[in-house]
């Protein structure tokens, strides 16, 4: 437990690592290639951290551009901790971003966006593919209907959260980045072009 990194800083943002569980098994994720490290940080967790563990680590809210829920798992799987900590950051005047695979609604079997909306300024959602075949090949979702679910989540998110970015990774076989961009922009979100192998 002492070796678990619950927070880590990249540039002027503080990242919060609140779960090691994930709804995907992405083949391009370093986690599946034997590494649990981003920059100099070891992100493997041996338990699901609670809000009581995370809040004392927030530090001086004014010192950071934003707090980002992003580790080696899907933050929405530890939803109670996510919401409690995000609320604390917002009440202290901070900015909150959640990096997500967009499968929180499918996993929880309800629309979680209204629960996030009061405390989350921006979402970064990983779409990763413009078609289901490529998505299944690269992301290997654990839940049926994941591709349709992430697209539905994006469409709901743009009406619920102030800022929504959607990313796809250039360099994955069978993925048309231009088609991803077109779909994302038509949905009302901002497209983020990522490159294969660049993490953080």
Kindly describe this structure.
- The protein is α/β, with parallel strands linked by helices.
- Helix content is 28%, strand content 20%.
- The chain has helices at 51-54, 79-91, 104-108, 113-116, 132-139, 146-157, 177-186; strands spanning 7-10, 13-16, 37-38, 41-42, 66-69, 96-100, 122-126, 163-170, 190-195.
- The strands form 2 sheets. It has a 7-stranded mixed beta sheet, with helices on one face. Strands 3-4 form a two-stranded antiparallel sheet.
- The radius of gyration is 16 Å and the shape is globular.
Estimated radius of gyration: 16 Å
Sequence of secondary-structure elements: EEEEHEHEHHEHHEHE
What structural category arises from helix and sheet content? alpha/beta
Q: Major sheet: order of its strands?
A: 1-2-5-6-7-8-9
Strand content: 15-25%
Say what oligomer this is: single chain
- Give the biggest beta sheet: 7 strands, mixed
Helix count equals 7
Q: Could you tell me the mean pLDDT?
A: 91
**How much helical structure, as a percent, in the residues?**
25-40%
Residue ranges: pLDDT <50 for 5 or more in a row? none
Number of strands: 9
Beginning-to-end CA distance, first to last residue: 23 Å
User: Quick one: overall form?
Assistant: globular
């Amino acid at each position: 437990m002492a070796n678990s990194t619950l927070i880590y800083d990249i540039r002027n943002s503080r990242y919060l690592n609140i779960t090691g569980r994930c709804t995907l098994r992405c083949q391009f994720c370093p986690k599946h290639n034997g590494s649990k490290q981003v920059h100099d940080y070891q992100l493997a967790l041996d338990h699901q951290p609670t809000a009581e563990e995370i809040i004392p680590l927030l530090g001086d809210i004014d010192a950071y551009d934003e707090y980002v829920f992003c580790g080696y798992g899907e933050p929405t799987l530890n939803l109670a901790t996510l919401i409690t900590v995000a609320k604390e950051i917002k009440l202290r005047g901070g900015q909150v971003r959640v990096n997500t695979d967009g499968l929180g609604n499918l996993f929880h079997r309800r629309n979680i966006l209204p629960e996030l909306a009061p405390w989350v300024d921006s979402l970064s959602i990983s779409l990763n593919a413009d078609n289901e075949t490529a998505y299944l090949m690269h992301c290997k979702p654990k839940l049926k209907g994941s591709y349709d679910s992430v697209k539905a989540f994006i469409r709901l998110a743009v009406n619920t959260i102030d800022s929504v970015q959607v990313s796809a990774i250039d360099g994955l076989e069978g993925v048309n980045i231009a088609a991803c961009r077109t779909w994302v922009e038509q949905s009302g979100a901002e497209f983020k072009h990522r490159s294969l192998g660049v993490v953080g």
